[in-house]
Amino acid sequence: MPPKRKQQYRHLPAFILLALAQEPSHGGAVMNLLSQRMPLFRPDSAAVYRTLQQLEEEGQVASSWDTSGSGPARRVYRITEAGWHKLDGWREDIEARLAHLNYFLQTYADIRNHRS
Questions:
Q1: pTM for the predicted model, two decimal places
Q2: Helix residue ranges, H only, the chain
Q3: β-strands 61-66, 74-79: how paired?
Q4: Max CA-CA distance within the chain?
Q5: Angle at the Cα of 45 (from 101 to 72), degrees rounded to 5?
Q6: Contact, 61 vs 17, CB < 8 A?
Q7: DSSP H or E stretch at residue 75
Q8: Is the Cα torsion angle 38, 57, 53, 28 positive or negative in sign?
Q9: DSSP one-letter code for 78
């Protein structure tokens, strides 16, 4: 049973902040990076740009326009200190979730082994 689309986006801000912690990027590059490194995680571009806007409103990212290329100007986002602080919170949240999920998987495996 694949997760519903809304459930997929629960951690989208965390993954966007993580991508921007690696290097400042524009929205399309963030989306490409997430798609390449997490093939089962398929956010649409509107969700990525909405989340970038929300993160900027909350002060977790800042943006500037890059006009150095030959094409149209691109808005480049970088993580701020507030973003790093939020990323620390995401790490703690994900570690707790992993502990719960590992408990489920181990308990399930134990039960299945006893039934065989």
A1: 0.83
A2: 5-8, 12-22, 27-37, 45-57, 81-115
A3: antiparallel
A4: 65
A5: 140
A6: yes
A7: strand 74-79
A8: negative
A9: E
> What are 2's two structure tokens?
């694949």
Are 66 and 23 within 8 A, CB to CB? no
Kindly report, residue by residue over 51-103, the tens digit of the pLDDT. Answer: 999 999 999 999 999 998 888 899 999 999 999 999 999 999 999 999 999 99
| Angle at the Cα of 19 from the Cα atoms of 15 and 22, rounded to 5 degrees | 140
CA distance readout (Å), 29 to 24, 25, 38: 9, 6, 14
Round to whole Å and give the CA distance between 57 and 84: 15
Contact 52, 77 (CB under 8 A): yes
The end-to-end CA distance of the chain, in Å, is 25
The rounded distance, in Å, linking the Cα atoms of 115 and 45 is 46
CA dihedral (88, 38, 96, 54) in degrees, to 10, reads: 50
Residues in the chain: 116
